[in-house]
Specification:
The complex is a heterodimer. Chain A is mostly helical. Helices cover about 75% and strands about 0% of the residues of chain A. The model of chain B has no long low-confidence stretch (mean pLDDT about 90). Classes of the chains: A mainly alpha, B alpha/beta.
């Protein structure tokens, strides 16, 4: 991947933390932009003052019930997708890898669809996220059944392909057998991915799972650096590759599974962001994790803000926007890789 | 460190690769591992580096690998894998620094000792000049030297190198062998997979000749590189010579008629 200039080739440790600091600040700034922009005119200061004083004004309600969950979830989901993408690429040593590739996203989506279909979604609000997480966990267990002890990277990719096809087929089956067109439509819209109309309850549900997932992924940073020189070298440097795979897949399942569960399928963030940031961290897969987390949050918040500013109604789904940005990007990436090969 | 392998056997995909391997490796000497393609050299090296489950036992200073622990063993044995794949285009110096991972807490910064080891390894391999270049901007031989520097930076008791000369020009081949020899003289045990019999005969203290998954001969170069053994292992003749009291062998085959006529 030499086509992008490497502006921070000699990125020392200080340079790395400066980059992370900048990205964190930008994430914070984008969160505020996302809070400030919406369909209703909102005086943020007044809304905040009302909320803190416990006054149930319209402004306070818009801020806490609509804007805040949307902005916070955008940051959390983007962070999860960006970091999980970087982690998967480090593990598989392939810039095309994404949480989607090992089947976690589609299995989570299928889990949520089952909940939709069975009618549990109407029974209690958190059934949907729980279904998504269950799907992600199922994907991980299936991966383990396939990959087992000491299997290579290729097996992992093929297992991902199999899980993806299976989850896709089961989702299609659910749509096919949907009892009424409205249910099918609801599923289709949900699958497109969106941050709209989520609540703070969603945030509290997914936050601990995501934090655990992030911690697992970040713990893999040094091993991912070692893996740059291949599996034998990584093991000769003292890393346990089975344990590494377990942490990476588990971490990706927790963070991506819970993200998909509350927002639907939002693709390509884990592909685009690590690719753009890689030159800034000296191509070190370990350092890419945190940077891609913040990068993903920035990208998702920016896309979600942009689609609210666009004069297109009904509102574009966030997953549609990221796919429209990401798919051409994927094509160019494949084209470039093919040329380099 | 003393590595003792006893009765090693391994089959991959149902095909026996190694059988009945017994050998002892010591620090302070350079051992050449030679044999035809498919003789089992890489497999044996990986087993010695504790990278492959196998039958039989490998003891490190009379202890099994499990008793020593993953990280401790990584500090004591450096492994340079064949082929030299580098999956992300990191700077040469960052690649060499990976060799220091076993020596520190994974999230700690490089210490003074780490920096010194990196400098030594890069100076020894003549790679200091391209420390800031990314690996994809280097030639195959330059990349190989950076990877050798990575393995040297571990400063382990034992260095197991699988074809470290692949892609090197004649000068750097000689320099790499001289470097491995200096490394051995300084007290490290070096095991190196080689295809160049001439270099093996000149630079190695001891040679292990693998043939068909077994050790055909093991000992000093002039004992191992006999006509009969080389004929059996490689199906070739060698011609012998000496210069300045140093003897060497050269793989030899009479030119065929077509070439002679030319």
């Amino acid at each position: 991947m030499s086509s992008l200039p490497a502006p921070a080739v000699r990125s020392g440790r200080a340079g790395y933390w400066r980059l992370v600091g900048l990205l964190a600040l930008a994430t914070l700034a984008m969160t505020f932009v996302s809070l400030a922009i919406g369909y209703a005119r909102l005086d943020l200061g007044m809304a905040l003052a009302d909320w803190l004083a416990g006054r149930q004004t319209l402004e306070a309600l818009v801020l806490v019930e609509l804007r805040l969950p949307r902005a916070v979830l955008g940051a959390l989901v983007g962070f999860s997708l960006g970091m999980a993408g970087a982690a998967m690429q480090g593990l598989l040593r392939n810039p095309l890898a994404e949480p989607g590739i090992v089947g976690i996203s589609s299995a989570a989506a299928f889990g949520a669809v089952v909940v939709f279909y069975s009618g549990f979604a109407g029974a209690f609000a958190l059934a949907l996220p729980l279904g998504g997480i269950a799907g992600a966990i199922l994907a991980v267990l299936l991966l383990y059944a396939f990959v087992g002890r000491g299997a290579g990277t290729m097996t992992l990719i093929l297992a991902g392909v199999a899980i993806n096809s299976f989850a896709g087929a089961m989702t299609a089956l659910a749509l096919n057998l949907a009892p009424n067109p409205y249910a099918a439509l609801e599923i289709v819209f949900w699958l497109m991915g969106s941050l709209a109309d989520r609540s703070l309850a969603h945030v509290w549900l997914v936050l601990p799972l995501m934090l655990l997932g992030w911690a697992l992924l970040l713990s893999c940073a040094p091993a991912l650096d070692g893996l740059t020189l291949g599996e034998d070298t990584a093991r000769s440097l003292g890393f346990d590759l089975n344990w590494l795979r377990a942490r990476l897949i588990g971490g990706a399942a927790l963070s991506v599974g819970s993200a998909v569960a509350v927002t639907g399928a939002i693709g390509f963030v884990g592909l685009v962001v690590p690719h753009l940031l890689r030159p800034f961290v000296g191509h070190r897969p370990g350092r890419l994790l945190l940077a891609s987390g913040f990068g993903g949050a920035i990208l998702l918040l920016a896309a979600d803000t942009a689609l609210r500013l666009l004069p297109i109604r009904p509102e574009l789904k966030l997953g549609v926007v990221t796919a429209l940005i990401g798919a051409p990007f994927l094509f160019s990436l494949i084209y470039r890789l093919r040329r380099e090969a | 460190m003393l590595i003792e392998a006893k009765d090693i056997a391994i089959a991959l995909a149902g095909r026996p690769i190694l059988r009945g391997i017994d050998l002892t490796l010591r620090t302070g000497q350079i051992v050449g591992l030679i044999g035809a393609n498919g003789a089992g050299k890489t497999t044996l090296l990986r087993i010695l580096a504790n990278l492959l489950p196998h039958a039989g036992s490998v003891l490190y200073d009379r202890e099994p690998a499990q008793a020593i622990g993953r990280k401790a063993l990584a500090r004591r044995i450096a492994f340079l894998s064949q082929g030299g794949a580098v999956h992300w285009q990191m700077r040469a110096e960052a690649v060499v620094a990976l060799g220091r991972l076993p020596h520190r807490h994974p999230f700690a910064d490089l210490s003074e000792a780490d920096h010194a080891a990196i400098e030594r390894a890069m100076a020894a391999t003549d790679t200091t000049a391209f420390r800031d270049r990314t690996l994809d901007s280097l030639s195959g031989g330059e990349r190989m030297r950076v990877l050798l520097a990575r393995a040297l930076a571990v400063e382990a008791e034992m260095l197991l190198a699988d074809e470290p000369l692949a892609g090197l020009d004649p000068r750097h081949e000689l320099e790499a062998m001289a470097l491995l020899r200096r490394t051995a003289l300084a007290g490290t045990g070096v095991v190196v997979v080689l295809h160049d019999l001439t270099l093996a005969s000149r630079f190695c203290d001891e040679i292990i000749l693998l043939h068909d998954g077994r050790i055909l001969a093991n000992g000093a170069p002039d004992e191992v590189l006999g006509d009969e053994q080389l004929g059996l292992a490689f199906g070739i003749d060698v011609t012998r010579g000496s210069r300045d009291g140093e003897s060497f062998v050269l793989p030899w085959q009479p030119l065929d008629q077509g070439k002679v006529a030319r």
